Amino acid sequence: MTGAFPAPGVAAPRRRRRRVLAAVLGLLCLVLVALAFIPLPYVVMGPGPVTNTLGATRDGRPLISVPKAQDHPASGVLSFTTVSVRGGPGATVTAYDLLAASVSQARSIVPEEQVFPQGATNEEIKRENAAEMTHSQEDAVVVAERALGLTVPETVSVGVLPTGSPAIGRLEPGDRFVQVGSTPVTGSAGLRSAIQSYAAGQSVPVTVVRDGARRQVSLPVREQQGRKVIGVGLKVDYTFPVKVTIDAGDVGGPSAGMMFALGIHDRLTPGELTAGQRIAGTGTLSPDGRVGPIGGIQQKLAGARAAGIQWFLAPAGNCGEVVGHVPDGLRVVRVDDFDDALADVRAIAAGKGAGLQGCG
Asked: Chain-centre distance of CA 28, in angstroms?
């Protein structure tokens, strides 16, 4: 018989090669499995939901509710945009997530510490985001109602006294400011402005009300980041002439402020502000109407276009990140403050959007 068996000395090397190959494949499988479970210190940011402030919640209630006597229902589209975040405290990002994100134009990979405070828990982040959303809604109501010519009184009091503050022992949380020097306090902006008139190192007489009684204390003025301060964290309470309620669901953070204000303004005025145009945007909003930059602008642009949005209002502070990342079919308009945003929406509605300033 010939050819029935391998030549002597041939079978053993083949068996060794098969064992080596099996070992390599087994090790590779272990590596691939490990890559699916080993957490990496990154987050993946992608487009999130796009929500119309003039629309309804999941249970059919208006997202923005105002008293019936002042309500002018609107059917346009003034949407706020969001970012989906995969990773962070309590979540895991793997190599496969990063690989998928790396080939997507709508997603970004960012080091975790650039998005979340170091050491923060998932619950702490949720509470902070919820608080920021609450403040953004309140500021949006302030700005929208004042833009309509309504008076929104402010009460300014001591919120917190930071460690080392010279006001410790002189002021207490809850003390209501009524006067700085000879200037009556009618709002937080006026209080801060009055403090700026003093030089660093000077003492400023401050009058507050505590338990119904007026008290005057003298506080040293310090300079911090180019501004004069007295070492007090302020708490501001508003008295709104028109009650407005916003239900944004489980969305957190401050970046919807500008779009909330536009939606409130539309609901409190007759007619359609958008004239059928599909408009979205993003931006924080301070009580004096300034629009501030936000994170994830590129993802928000992509999400808006995917939702069929035609026009996007972007904070001026984000324009550097906008250039080169505008999806086809989307027009971006640069916004500095709420007056800009309102004028831009009216121009878009009137068919004059082509002349508005973009980010290019």
From this structure: 42
Question: Is-contact 230 195, C-beta < 8 A?
Answer: yes
Beta-bridge partners for 140: none
Contact residues for 248 (Cβ-Cβ < 8 A; gap 6+): 51, 63, 80, 133, 137, 256
DSSP 69: G
Place of tokens 């009216």: 346
Q: How far apart are CA 174 and CA 232, in angstroms?
A: 11
The answer to whether the CB of 215 falls within 8 A of the CB of 209 is yes
List the structure tokens of 194. 């009055």
CA 263 – CA 54 distance, rounded (Å): 6
Enumerate helices (H) and strands (E) in the chain, giving the number of each: 8, 18
Name which of 298, 321, 334, 309 is nearest 79 in CA terms.
309
pLDDT for 28 equals 61
Residue 184: beta bridge partners? 179
* Closest-CA residue to 187 (of 98, 287, 78): 287
pLDDT given for residue 12 in this prediction: 66
Q: How are beta strands 222-224 and 233-238 bridged, if at all?
A: unpaired
- The closest of 133, 88, 128, 108 to 47, measured between CA atoms, is 108
Question: Mean pLDDT in runs of 10 for the chain (360 residues)?
Answer: 54 67 63 57 86 89 93 92 83 72 74 76 83 92 97 94 92 96 92 93 95 95 89 94 93 93 96 94 95 94 96 97 94 97 97 92
Indicate yes or no: pTM above 0.90: no
Nearest residue to 61 (alpha-carbon basis) of 265, 195, 245: 245
169: tokens are 């022992």
